[in-house]
C-alpha cells in the first residue's frame, strides 16, 4: 500500500529549511535548544504568519548520557564533547543576535548526580543558560509540535516521543472537540495538560507517562546480550513491561478513530529506510503514514543485516546505527500494545514545541485555520 500524507501535514509548525527573503530583524528571531541524552539540537526561527521559517539550525550527536547507566554521573569526556557543541550553538546565537531563546536539557541531566555542576560549567564556558525541564513539560512540548499531523477524524490520539534517555507517551481524548478544531485544540495544550476553563473546545489528556527508557538507556540495559535477535526481543519485552501502569493500556480500545503519532530519530529513520532514501529528505518523511506491516518489514530487514550491515547502511546513518535496534524494539512494543495498523511519522519534536510556546506566549503568530 502506498504511503499517504494526511491533510494538513504541511501546516504549522512547519520548519521550512529556507531563509527569509531578507535578513531577519534580530528582535523577531527565536531560538530553541534541546540537549538530550544522545543529541544536541538547535533551531533559530522567525515567525511567519501561523508558521515559522528556520533561519539557522544545528544538530550533533554528543552522547551526553554515555556511561550514565553504570555510574549515575555524566562523564568528563561526554561533558567536554557536549560543551564543544554548545560553543557552536553560542556562536550561531551571537551571529544572529537572537534575543528570545529557551535552552533546555532533558533525561540525562534529570538523572545525573553531577548535572548541576555541568549546567554551571556550560554557563561559565559558553555563557548559555540551560534549564532542566520536567518530563511533563517535555511530553507537552512534543505533543503540540505534532498537532498538524492529527487527523480531523481522530478521536483517541497517542503521541509518542522516543528520546535517548526516556520515552514520553501522551493519550488524548478528542471526542468532545468538533472535527475541524481538533488540531487547534492540541495546540492549546501549550498552556498545560490541564489548562484553566476556556470558551474553546478542549483536548482532554487522559493519561501520560515518561518511561526512563530511551534508545541509549535501553541499549545499555542489554549491552551484555551477544545474540542480536535475542537482545532485540528482550528489549521490546522489557519496554512493554514498563508500560503496565499507563492507564489506557488496561482498556480495550476501538480501532476506528485511533491514531498514533511518533516523533523521534528512530521513527524517521524507519520511514527513510521504508522509502529507500539514500539521502534523508524531511519533506518526504514528515507526515508520512506507515502501516504496521511496512514497519515490521523494515525492522526484520534491520535484524537480517546484523550489526555490521546496519553500520554500512546509508539509510540508517553513522549516528544512528548503534541505536536503531533499541528504538525499533520500543516501536514494535507500542504497535503490539494498541489497536492500530498505522503510524504517523513526525520529523518534529521538542525544539518545534519550544519555538511555538515562545511565539504563542508573545502573540507573534497568526491564528490561521489549518
TrEMBL record:
<feature type="region of interest" description="Disordered">
    <location>
        <begin position="1"/>
        <end position="25"/>
    </location>
</feature>
<dbReference type="Pfam" id="PF02541">
    <property type="entry name" value="Ppx-GppA"/>
</dbReference>
<dbReference type="InterPro" id="IPR003695">
    <property type="entry name" value="Ppx_GppA_N"/>
</dbReference>
<dbReference type="InterPro" id="IPR050273">
    <property type="entry name" value="GppA/Ppx_hydrolase"/>
</dbReference>
<dbReference type="InterPro" id="IPR043129">
    <property type="entry name" value="ATPase_NBD"/>
</dbReference>
<protein>
    <submittedName>
        <fullName>Ppx/GppA family phosphatase</fullName>
    </submittedName>
</protein>
<feature type="domain" description="Ppx/GppA phosphatase N-terminal">
    <location>
        <begin position="44"/>
        <end position="359"/>
    </location>
</feature>
<dbReference type="GO" id="GO:0016462">
    <property type="term" value="F:pyrophosphatase activity"/>
</dbReference>
Amino acid at each position: 500500500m502506498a504511503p499517504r500524507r494526511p491533510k494538513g501535514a504541511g501546516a504549522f509548525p512547519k520548519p521550512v529549511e529556507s531563509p527569509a527573503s531578507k535578513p531577519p530583524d534580530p528582535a523577531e528571531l527565536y531560538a530553541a535548544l534541546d540537549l538530550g541524552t544522545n543529541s544536541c539540537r538547535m533551531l533559530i526561527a522567525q515567525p511567519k504568519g501561523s508558521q515559522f521559517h528556520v533561519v539557522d539550525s544545528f544538530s550533533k550527536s554528543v552522547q551526553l548520557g554515555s556511561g550514565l547507566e553504570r555510574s549515575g554521573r555524566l562523564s568528563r569526556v561526554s561533558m567536554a564533547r557536549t560543551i564543544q557543541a554548545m560553543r557552536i550553538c553560542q556562536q550561531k546565537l551571537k551571529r544572529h543576535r537572537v534575543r528570545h531563546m529557551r535552552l533546555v536539557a532533558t533525561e540525562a541531566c534529570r538523572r545525573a548526580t553531577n548535572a548541576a555542576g555541568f549546567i554551571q560549567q556550560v554557563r561559565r564556558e559558553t555563557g548559555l543558560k540551560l534549564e532542566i525541564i520536567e518530563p511533563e513539560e517535555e511530553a507537552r512540548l512534543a505533543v503540540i509540535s505534532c498537532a498538524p499531523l492529527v487527523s480531523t477524524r481522530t478521536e483517541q490520539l497517542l503521541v509518542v516521543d522516543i528520546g535517548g534517555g526516556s520515552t514520553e507517551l501522551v493519550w488524548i481524548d478528542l471526542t468532545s472537540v468538533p472535527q475541524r478544531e481538533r488540531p487547534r485544540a492540541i495546540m492549546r495544550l501549550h498552556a498545560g495538560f490541564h489548562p484553566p476553563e476556556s470558551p474553546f473546545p478542549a483536548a482532554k489528556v487522559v493519561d501520560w507517562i515518561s518511561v526512563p527508557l530511551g534508545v541509549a538507556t535501553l541499549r545499555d540495559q542489554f549491552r551484555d546480550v551477544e545474540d542480536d535477535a535475542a537482545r532485540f526481543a528482550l528489549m521490546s519485552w522489557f519496554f512493554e513491561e514498563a508500560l503496565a501502569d499507563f492507564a489506557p493500556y488496561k482498556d480495550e480500545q476501538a480501532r476506528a478513530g485511533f491514531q498514533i503519532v511518533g516523533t523521534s530519530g528512530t521513527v524517521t529513520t524507519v520511514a527513510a529506510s521504508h522509502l529507500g532514501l539514500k539521502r534523508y529528505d524531511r519533506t518526504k518523511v514528515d507526515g508520512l503514514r506507515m502501516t504496521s506491516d511496512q514497519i515490521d518489514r523494515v525492522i526484520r530487514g534491520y535484524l537480517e543485516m546484523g550489526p555490521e550491515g546496519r553500520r554500512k547502511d546509508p539509510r540508517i546513518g553513522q549516528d544512528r546505527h548503534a541505536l536503531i535496534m533499541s528504538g525499533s524494539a520500543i516501536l514494535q512494543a507500542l504497535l503490539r500494545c494498541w489497536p492500530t495498523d498505522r503510524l504517523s511519522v513526525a520529523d518534529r519534536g521538542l525544539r518545534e514545541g519550544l519555538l511555538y510556546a515562545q511565539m504563542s506566549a508573545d502573540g507573534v503568530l497568526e491564528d490561521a485555520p489549518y
